Amino acid sequence: VSSDFFNLLERLVGGGVDFVIVGGFAGIVHGCSYVTQDIDICCSFTSANLLALQKALSDIHPVHRQTANRKKLELTKDNSIEYKNLYLDTDIGQLDCLSFIDGIGDYHEVKKASEAIRVEDMELHVLNLDALIIAKKAMNRTRDKETILQLEAIKKLKNEKP
Amino acid sequence: LFDGRTVKWFDGSRGFFIERRNKTSYDDIMAGTSRKQNRTKAASQQMDEVQPAINYGIDVSVLVQNMARSHTERIMRHQIALNTAEQLRKAKPS
């Protein structure tokens, strides 16, 4: 099944999920040239928000991607507070939901370090360029080296723009 | 003869002074900082700053093109690239 990140984002926005796009996909939004296979979001891990997320994804069969038998996402008001991160797969793409971003902080800090963008008729929040660079550096992963160089180049090119 | 932005010289063959107004001032001309040179200097400085990315093998021109696009276009183009990659991955030898 092909991924459809636009559709995935539409569902989250339509479902009233409070989230910020982070990670590799945020890099795409800022202009990076690589291809990423999932969307990372940082979201409020309150029961209400997680249940809204579950509802928004309900008809695209969300499962816990990293469990042995790809366990179905079955959040309840009680068990939802146990999670810190959710690594999901759906019929239209992978979605990683994180409650904390290294170098930035929890959802509230991430939201503060985000910028609102308009994509067609949706308003999305994306981690801003500076914060994304900080977050990528904080993770200190070899595979992020190219991403960091791309983001830094974009920042310099943006600053040079007349 | 220089006078600010005006250059005057005597044309012997015609027997009169010719006056030409320059876009750059005398000081600019003498300092070698015309607008064109400023642009070249800025472009060169820009290239210096993105040099680490270039050295790593990143095609900076693609980033420049992406930056000229809207957020929607960036997301759509990424989706096309991802779908193409997924199709190629699934492809079987004919």
Structural notes for this entry:
Chain A contains six helices and nine strands. Chain A has helices at 5-14, 23-30, 47-57, 107-112, 129-139, 145-160; strands at residues 19-22, 38-43, 63-64, 85-90, 93-98, 100-101, 105-106, 114-119, 122-127. The mean pLDDT of chain A is 95. In chain B, 59% of the residues lie in helices and 15% in strands. Chain B is built from five helices and three strands. Chain B starts with a strand and ends with a helix. The model of chain B has no long low-confidence stretch (mean pLDDT 75). Classes of the chains: A alpha+beta (162), B alpha+beta (94).
Task: Please outline what is shown here.
The complex is a heterodimer of chains A (162) and B (94). Chain A contains six helices and nine strands, in the order αβαβαβββββαββαα. Chain A is of the alpha+beta class and 162 residues long.
Topology:
The complex is a heterodimer of chains A (162) and B (94).
Chain A: H1 5-14, E1 19-22, H2 23-30, E2 38-43, H3 47-57, E3 63-64, E4 85-90, E5 93-98, E6 100-101, E7 105-106, H4 107-112, E8 114-119, E9 122-127, H5 129-139, H6 145-160
Helix pairs in contact in A: 1-3, 2-5, 5-6
Chain B: E1 2-3, E2 6-11, E3 16-21, H1 26-31, H2 35-49, H3 51-56, H4 60-67, H5 71-90
Antiparallel strand pairs in B: 1-2, 2-3
Report helical residue fraction of chain B. 55-70%
What is the makeup of the main sheet of chain B? 3 strands, antiparallel
Anisotropy-based shape of chain B = elongated
Q: What structural category do the secondary elements of chain A indicate?
A: alpha+beta
Q: How many H/I helical runs of chain A? A: 6
Helix content of chain A: 25-40%
Write down the Rg of chain A: 16 Å
Major sheet strand order of chain B: 1-2-3
User: Which stretches of chain A are low in confidence, meaning pLDDT under 50 for 5 or more residues running?
Assistant: none
Mean pLDDT of chain A: 95
- What's the β-strand tally of chain A? 9
Number of helices of chain B: 5
Order of helices and strands of chain A: HEHEHEEEEEHEEHH
Strand content of chain B: 5-15%
